[in-house]
Automatic annotation (TrEMBL):
<dbReference type="InterPro" id="IPR008278">
    <property type="entry name" value="4-PPantetheinyl_Trfase_dom"/>
</dbReference>
<feature type="domain" description="4'-phosphopantetheinyl transferase">
    <location>
        <begin position="105"/>
        <end position="197"/>
    </location>
</feature>
<protein>
    <submittedName>
        <fullName>4'-phosphopantetheinyl transferase superfamily protein</fullName>
    </submittedName>
</protein>
<keyword id="KW-0808">Transferase</keyword>
<dbReference type="GO" id="GO:0000287">
    <property type="term" value="F:magnesium ion binding"/>
</dbReference>
<dbReference type="GO" id="GO:0008897">
    <property type="term" value="F:holo-[acyl-carrier-protein] synthase activity"/>
</dbReference>
<dbReference type="Pfam" id="PF01648">
    <property type="entry name" value="ACPS"/>
</dbReference>
<dbReference type="InterPro" id="IPR037143">
    <property type="entry name" value="4-PPantetheinyl_Trfase_dom_sf"/>
</dbReference>
Amino acid sequence: MPLYKTITVSPTTKVYIWKVTEPEGELSKNVELTEHCQTRMDGMKSMAHRRAFLSIRHLMAEAGYVDHDLYYDDFGKPHLKDGKFISITHSHNFTGIIISETDEVGIDIEMQRDKILKIAHKFTPIQEYKTLANSEALIRKLTIVWGAKESLYKIYAQQGLSFLRHINVIDFSFEDTRTVAEILYHGKRTHYEIEFLEFEGFTCVYALKMMGG
């Protein structure tokens, strides 16, 4: 069972990451999906997508939940029926969830790819990062920034929120493995803590809304 990594963020918040290596048949064992999720899975043409979907149910089991504990709002944001906060992500053969009793949370896993250099101007003022030594470092940094903004978007869950105009990630060094960010939208400012890690050419970023922020 390839539970790849568990991170205790705080006494009330945990991250679970899965590396998907098993065939679909093995992943579907002991997983009972809600009608809504079964319909979603039935509509997935890609086997990789179905395997990722099932692996997320195994991550939930690690945290003590089954699929029936999960529901989605009109924006597509997942919620747990017991009132705890959850966020879900998958990228290629990695999936992840973050669950918190106390904080609104978001998580994102991204593969590090040079394609991000072409789209960077759409989501961040790229001149901020021009001091980096080489394109590999720039790709790594931009992937963290993108993952942070994706995580915040999942928390905020409001249409019209712009990665470029409304979400600001404060600059950071790779060694810090953390930074802070803010969203300024419709005159309201909210603050978030960001943490990140890198593994096997992937970047995982997770965000927690700061109390009172």
